[in-house]
Amino acid sequence: MTSALALRVEAGAAAAPFEQIREQITALIAAGELPVGTRLPPVRALAETLGVAAGTVARSYRELESAGLVETRGRAGTVVAGGVDALERELQAAAAVYASRARELGATSDGALTAASRALGV
């Protein structure tokens, strides 16, 4: 099943368009609105709908895949990943949002990891 995503890209937003797309899809997955196995729109189709370059959507999808939230199945497209339970999926989604915000603030990877460790009390 392919999902029609209700996404928006704000031209004047602090976050880059690829980050906006990634964050919105992450939130939909975390909220359970995109269940495991849901096929995301093809890169070109979503790019056209949002008025952005195909590379922008492709980057969002790559980052979602790196976070374990989606998997690309060649011609079968990109689907919401299975194999992780709801808690793990929510943790991955929250981590992706945190990483995006840390980048917006200009934090280094080490700085972001240190802040997260402190927040967790480790």
Structure characterization notes:
- This protein has 122 residues and is mainly alpha-helical.
- The chain has one domain: Orthogonal Bundle (Arc Repressor Mutant, subunit A).
- The chain has 5 helices and 2 strands.
- The protein has helices at 17-30, 43-50, 54-66, 86-104, 109-120, and strands spanning 70-72, 78-80.
- A two-stranded antiparallel sheet has the order 1-2.
- β1 (70-72) and β2 form a beta hairpin.
- The radius of gyration is 15 Å and the shape is globular.
Topology:
Layout: H1 17-30, H2 43-50, H3 54-66, E1 70-72, E2 78-80, H4 86-104, H5 109-120
Antiparallel strand pairs: 1-2
- CATH fold name, please? Arc Repressor Mutant, subunit A
Structural class determined from secondary elements:
mainly alpha
CATH class: Mainly Alpha
Can you tell me the number of structural domains? Answer: 1
Helix content: 40-55%
CATH architecture: Orthogonal Bundle
Distance between the termini: 41 Å
Briefly characterize the structure.
With 122 residues, this protein is mostly helical. Helix content is 54%, strand content 5%.
Keywords for this structure?
single chain, 122 residues, mainly alpha, Arc Repressor Mutant, subunit A, two-stranded antiparallel sheet, 5 helices, 5% strand, globular
